Amino acid sequence: MDNARKIIGHFGFEDFIDDYLLVDASTADFANLRPIHVAVTETMNRAMMTEPQLAVSANLARYLEADGILVPEQITVSAALLDAGKEFTLLPPDYQAPRLRCNAAVWSWAR
Hints:
Helices cover 20% and strands 23% of the residues. It has three helices and six strands, in the order αβαβββαββ. The strands form three sheets. The protein has a two-stranded parallel sheet. The relative contact order is 0.15.
């Protein structure tokens, strides 16, 4: 929270902030607050295992103004099958591990 306050202060945006909330953004109910104009989420830790980026973004998008902005505006999740024994050993820098690509899923918040 301190870093968010410092960044907002650095750019002089304090007058545009109603409140700082420390909540589970994937489930929090913001209906009793004013609509959100800009929401920024930084949730890309460890392949979304510890930070549910999609759930957070989907929840925040529900409370945006009609012309509000959610950053990032799009999330792409892709998966590939790999041989961990070959993938995570010391191999030549130009080695390309064979992978079976799976379909990608894309969610977009742009209106």
